[in-house]
Amino acid sequence: MTRIEQIMRTAPVIPVLVIDDAAHARPIAEALVAGGLRVLEVTLRTAAALDVIREMKSVTGAIVGAGTVLNEADLRASIDAGSEFIVSPGLTDALGKAAVASGIPFLPGTANASDIMRGLDLGLRHFKFFPAATSGGIPALKALCGPFGDVHFCPTGGITQDTARDWLAIDQVRCVGGSWLVAKGAPDEARITAAAQAAAALAKG
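and the corresponding structure tokens:
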């Protein structure tokens, strides 16, 4: 089993986190891990993101990666901050080759057959299906699973606690990405832990 496969199988939901204040990083990570979600994707959408990754790395049990990685500079900065995996919204040849060369587990975004074929050419077999809800939803992903029977997906974008189980029912889906678990602002740790517990309960049997 590859490292990205192991990460994707750790929990049914990967929280997709947009955090503005690094002071919130540790309590959020601790609450999510306490609820059973160990794999945490910190998106590079805020100025604090790299510091958030560093802070979350110190939480026992957390597996912390960087999301919204758009180019080689983002990749290098994320690795330097201690990221254990990389997620991107799309896939370019430059980013894909750099990520593969680095050896870090990499989950590039794909939305169509050409994206997946580009990834296959780079030796990749695991992809984020993004944006999932607006790229044809479950019917589109099921259609892609036909010709690409040896690849695995993490659908992300527009998925909720109520719809996650339907996505997870697809054989080639290993997990889903979810932004519903943590609200903006100061963290409500009890609420985050409860949301994480509900998400972790979606695990496939």
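(Above: one complete record from the training split.) Residues 3-200 form a domain with the TIM Barrel fold (CATH 3.20.20.70).
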